[in-house]
Amino acid sequence: MNWNILIFFYLALAMTFSSLLAIISRNPVHAVLWVVVMILHQAFLLYTLGSEFLTAVQIIVYAGAVLVLFLFVVYMINLRKEERWKVFVSKSSYGFIIFVVFLYLFFKNLAFLTALNPAFKVQLTYDLSQGSNLLWMARYLYSHYLFQFEVIGVILLVVIFGAVFLLRKLKEVG
Amino acid sequence: MDSTIIMFFSALVILLIAMFHVAYLTYAERKIIARMQQRLGPNRVGPRGLLQPIADVLKLIQKEDIIHPGVDRPIFAIAPLISLVCAASGLALIPLWDRFVLSNLNVGLLFILALSSLSAYGVILSGWASNSRYSFLGALRASAQVISYEIAMSLSLLSVVLMAGSFNLQDIVKAQLSTPYKIYLIPQIVAFFVFMVSALAETNRVPFDLPEAETELVAGYFTEYSGIRFAIFYLAEYFGMIVMSALAVTCFLGGYAGPFEVPGLPFIWFLIKVYAFLFFYIWVRATLPRYRYDQLMGLGWKVLIPLSLLNLFVTAFIKLLV
């Protein structure tokens, strides 16, 4: 047992429990906050894997922007009635079947046990002595994965156009 | 193990020095604004009122910590701490000297941006947890404002990153020193302008202090706070100012470097530059009136973001040609 494994287990447990709490919480604001906790742990997990850039981006994009917008939406809509509902889904048996399937998949892969194996090592396809993680990521993004990168850019642009278009339509109607 | 202990102690020393600066920043603010408004300012406690910040701190600690029954207790308690931690930990990444930076991260600049985006949570959560109309309005204003101005701020800093070719703040300072002007203020004057305006908005200072506009919202998001919790919010705001000033110094004014070396005082140029920025913050507060909310959003989205995008494109183009 070395420190890395302990830290990994802490992060994995914290992420699992915070995401569970996010689903269970009755209060929508508390639910969003548990997602924030989950994302911060996820960011730290990325940091332990040596990816500083992804850590920062994870925090800036998800915790700093997306979830603040979620909170904004939760504030705006009134959920008083929904908070008093006993159960959200009446047929819990379907949920149980899905849960069993996921449990099966989880134990089938048992990815977390490979981390316990002392012979297990993360295989890097690049050499960190030749430049930082950030540099390598930039190199891959702008050479090997350039096409995919550009496609994602176009998709995001289409999303923005879609949002503007929907807003226009709403304005014309009402 | 030794390096961990040394790190811990240097963090503690930096924190204490920063606390001292925060305390006397409040004094300086009151004195300077008083001078600008032709008043005297604090002058009762100690010579020239110099002990006023200490008296204020003692008073705030003694006050009763009122938590009214309608609040969401855990979030109400944790919100000021989120603000303070996010505002203060940025200091760890600022290179204070050639050989002294607490945490020399490769993506230091991105981490400061991440922390400043997280500090919005303190404001938003305190407003919601207080269960009060005024606090809630302040929180709503803050969340929209911080998100909008963060984009402009990141874009303006990206042009600095493009020029330096690194996210590491130490490298940014060194890259500046190798240019003919020694500072990025001259080639990046547009980015500097955008950065300063959005830094004012990020720290919720006048003229963008709509989340805590006392003439409209009592005190905005911290209306329901009292005693030590109120003091923590106050502390966080001033820490935010100091970190933003230090970031501006690092990215645009050549960091710790000065026109000549002062023997025995390695931090002196850094401090002088930071004080100049802090004076600018206070000066702005005494001079400008508050913006209306739609004007604030218009300025952010229609002026600052296009301007910083254009500046980024021009910088990238020039970098490509040279």
Relevant terms:
heterodimer, A: 174 residues, mainly alpha, Four Helix Bundle (Hemerythrin (Met), subunit A), 8 helices, globular, B: 322 residues, 11 helices, 0% strand
In words, what does this structure look like?
Chain A is mostly helical and 174 residues long. Chain A has a domain at 3-88: NADH-ubiquinone/plastoquinone oxidoreductase chain 6, subunit NuoJ (Four Helix Bundle (Hemerythrin (Met), subunit A)), CATH 1.20.120. Chain A is 77% helix and 0% strand. Chain A contains 8 helices and no strands. Chain A has helices at 3-24, 28-48, 52-76, 80-83, 92-109, 111-116, 133-142, 146-173. In chain A, α1 (3-24) packs antiparallel against α2 and α2 packs antiparallel against α3. Chain A is globular, with a radius of gyration of 21 Å. The termini of chain A are far apart. By secondary structure, chain B is mainly α. Chain B has one domain (2-24, 54-321). Chain B is 68% helix and 0% strand. Chain B is built from 11 helices and no strands. Chain B has helices at residues 2-36, 52-62, 73-88, 108-129, 133-164, 169-177, 189-202, 214-217, 227-252, 268-287, 293-321. Chain B is globular, with a radius of gyration of 20 Å. Chain B starts with a helix and ends with a helix. In chain B, 47% of the residues are buried. The mean pLDDT of chain B is 85. The interface between A and B is medium-sized, with 23 and 26 residues.
- From the N-terminal CA to the C-terminal CA of chain B, the straight-line distance is 46 Å
CATH level-four homologous superfamily name of the domain at 3-88 in chain A:
NADH-ubiquinone/plastoquinone oxidoreductase chain 6, subunit NuoJ
Q: So what's the oligomer here?
A: heterodimer
Work out the helicity level of chain B: 55-70%
Largest chain interface and its two residue counts?
Answer: A-B, 23 and 26 residues
CATH class of the domain at 3-88 in chain A: Mainly Alpha
Tell me the Rg of chain B in angstroms. 20 Å
CATH architecture of the domain at 3-88 in chain A: Up-down Bundle
Main beta sheet of chain A: none
Number of beta-strand segments of chain B: 0
Low-confidence blocks of residues of chain B: none
